Amino acid sequence: MITTFSHSSLNSFRRCPRKFAYEKIEKIQVPEVITPDTYLGTAVHRVLQKLYKFGADDVLLSLEDTLADYHSFWDKINLDILRVESEHYTVDDYIRIGEKMLRRHYEKYQPFNSGTLLGVELYLSFELPGTPFKVQGFIDKLWRREDGIVEICDYKTGMTIARPQDETFRWQMGIYELAVRASWPQYEDIEVAQHFLRHDEIIRHRNTPEQLDILTEEIRNEIMEIYQANKTQNFPATENSLCRYCDYQQYCPSRRHARMLEEESDEPEPSPESKAQQLRSMADRYLELHKVAGTTKAEMDALKEEFKQIVREGGPTKLIGELGHVNVKLGTIEKFITKTRDAQQFAELSATARRLKLDEFFDLNGRALFKHYSISGRLSDEQKQALAPFVIEEEDSRVTARPNKVNDDKDDQT
């Protein structure tokens, strides 16, 4: 289990736990893919780092040398290996866009010696209170402005402008501020800022102590979610708009059936009895039953059990039919024993919790108590040891029908 996290790794888990597991836990090796927009970001950051580092010593690099330095980064890479993901842009367009950003930034901020530079490309980490975990980050520029405020600066070369309330802004810049405050507690007035170089816009924000406390708790909760997911090996695939850029598509259970169908499409006459076609037929049958009022529950339940068994045996978690698709989520969760599962043990759990003075969970809220139990530092060792015998593992599953023309989606949870 990893013990050091960053904004990018935590964001990866939120977007898709399965991809996080492939990359951070299973460490599956995939061919490195470099896109021109990511390489553009690297080149611009390296040039800005150099400009501000020299500028802090009152050495101004000329614009000509600065742009030559920028182009030298592009000369170091074989442009043919860059994967261009937009049909409207070429690599030359990205090079031009980067030069435009740097030229404008140079003319606006030269001689790059305003305030006091405290660090560029600064690596910082801090221990998350109440846990054995660390959180780390790389800060593009840390400086004390002429008004005395310490600014944490992050340069962005993409198209999208963030808002302070956006989750990515709040988490990334909040983590940077927590790291700075842990390293230099004497810095009181701190402001975070993202510079969007394409738009020549700066979005600034001042975090309150309450906002930083909330973020710290959110980070702690997410890390404990990762810890629990690793313990039960429950990292479901979550489809989102970034799936088409994912380097792990060939391994993803959500893409498995689609790949099977694609492989069969190359055959002159695909067999109707093939595994891929059988899965397609099952998906369509479930979708038909799903939309018919008064459907026999027994047949739907039987199909759901077949879907879950397919996933248990390593099959696809997304079954594609002519009428739509069916998502199957299957994993293991830990929880406290429930009254319906074992009334006697539940009574013992209730008595134990009362003895430990955990009265806020009565009438006993098992979900809330387990969350309290699973987060490091919330309970004493004595309390955790006393509650441990009541923890059980249970299969967690959901079968969701997604017709092509959705009127009323229904989630069937078992």
- Stated plainly, the CATH topology of the largest domain is called Lambda Exonuclease, Chain A
Head-to-tail CA distance between termini? 30 Å
- Any idea what the CATH architecture of the largest domain is? Alpha-Beta Complex
Q: What is the rounded Rg?
A: 27 Å
User: Which H/E pattern describes the elements?
Assistant: EHHHHHEEEHEEHHHHEEHHHEE
Shape: flat
Helix content: 40-55%
Low-confidence stretches: 407-411
Secondary structure blueprint with pairings:
Blueprint (H helix, E strand, L loop, with lengths): L3 E3 H9 L1 H9 L10 H20 L7 H13 L15 H19 L6 E12 L6 E11 L5 E7 L10 H17 L6 E7 L4 E5 L3 H24 L23 H10 L9 H17 L5 H16 L5 E3 L3 E13 L6 H13 L10 H9 L6 H7 L3 E13 L7 E3 L1
Helix pairs in contact: 1-2, 3-4, 3-5, 4-5, 8-9, 9-10
Describe the structure.
This protein is an alpha+beta fold. It is 44% helix and 19% strand. It contains 13 helices and 10 strands. The protein has helices at 7-15, 17-25, 36-55, 63-75, 91-109, 167-183, 209-232, 256-265, 275-291, 297-312, 343-355, 366-374, 381-387; strands spanning 4-6, 116-127, 134-144, 150-156, 190-196, 201-205, 318-320, 324-336, 391-403, 411-413. Strands 1, 2, 3, 4, 5 and 6 form a 6-stranded mixed beta sheet that branches. The protein has a 4-stranded antiparallel beta sheet with strand order 7-8-9-10, sandwiched between helices. A hairpin with a 3-residue loop joins β7 (318-320) and β8.
